[in-house]
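Example 4.3 (complexes with small molecules)
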Amino acid sequence: MDIQRIREDFPQLERKINGERLIYFDNAATSLRPKSVVDAVSEFYLNYNANIHRAIHTLSREATEAYERAHKDVAKFINAESMEEIIFTRNTTESINLVVFSLFLSEKVKSGDTVVISLMEHHSNMVPWQFLRDKYGVNLKFVNLNSDGTLDMNHLEDVLKKSKNLKVVSITHASNVLGAVNDVKTIGKLAHRYGAIFIVDGAQSAPHLKVDVKDIDCDFYAFSGHKMLGPTGIGALYGKKALLEELEPFLRGGDMIWEVKIEKVTFNKLPWKYEAGTSNIAGGIGFGAAVRYLESVGMENVEKHERDLASYALQKLKELDFVRVYGPEERIGVVAFNVMQKNGNPFSPEFVAQVLDRHGIAIRTGCHCAQPLHNNFLKVRGTARASFYLYNTKEEIDIFVDVLRDFGNAL
Ligand SMILES: Cc1ncc(COP(=O)(O)O)c(C=O)c1O
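Answer. The structure with pyridoxal-5'-phosphate bound is encoded below.
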């Protein structure tokens, strides 16, 4: 992987922040976009802007072809059987809500049934289930974590064994705080053995790992375009065709129908049955360009590079005894940490982020939409988080660690 060559594709990396060259370590929140993605979006708006699926004029046909090609490219990217299994949504959050409410509307999950998630879930794979629990009496169970922040697989099996009317297991592929990568293939086998539908939150895996939904054998896989070089406002849900055929769509209106009579409605073919109304056409086209870019680099190369960066960062941060890092050694490029005061309490992560920002380094702070993980497991109010992507370098990590070292030495 020629990182310097890759960096040239991301003009934002040229920016100076407070007089320093930008070091963008906030990739788990949203990535930067290469010029090819921005060009694909602007080419649509400037050259063949039209609505899709509705008209026979040339522009509409071109837009429809480009939008459908993007579905095909995203399907290929995660090894789905065909584009029928790829629904474009706004983001992971909407993808998960789509599954939750389609399952609920189809009475696949109802009062007295059990859904299993884990303590490391992002709010988007927790809050919709909490709603079904609080409003409709669905049981919601949480799988614990081992002390290093990995998923407790024994507890998972125990929970599945003891659950009455188990219907769904919904687990993140990779934690956006701990960096832990869950063994989703084994989790899927267990979920299916106990008769559950298996949903994977892929927000932090699709951008960073080679994902093969057939190999994982998940029933649904949710991910966001904006975390993997694509535009904001576009994401995807993979679903097994048979399930998508069977379930009720939760958004209804234009484009998702085949025929509307006063007394009866029939739905459009997949995936359009789940894409009601005018879609984010430009976003979808940009998403296609993003996965083509990632394919051209090679996801195995992206993963290897990021794992190298993560282990380099962990090793360097170990030199700073006032920095506490959370999560296991084996991880994707996400490093959550706190800078500890002499009294044993952490500095406010926001204060640490301000210091880094003065040196042009962008990180994220807070609970990263994983409040129960912070409250019930890490037992801290929040953390600072550096997260890497294909264009980051060890030299940038050196600068980041040097700024933290100077900060700590001044304490
Ligand atoms: C693991 C995980 N799941 C879900 C989400 C939600 O993604 P989005 O905000 O794009 O819907 C995120 C975003 O940070 C995430 O990291």
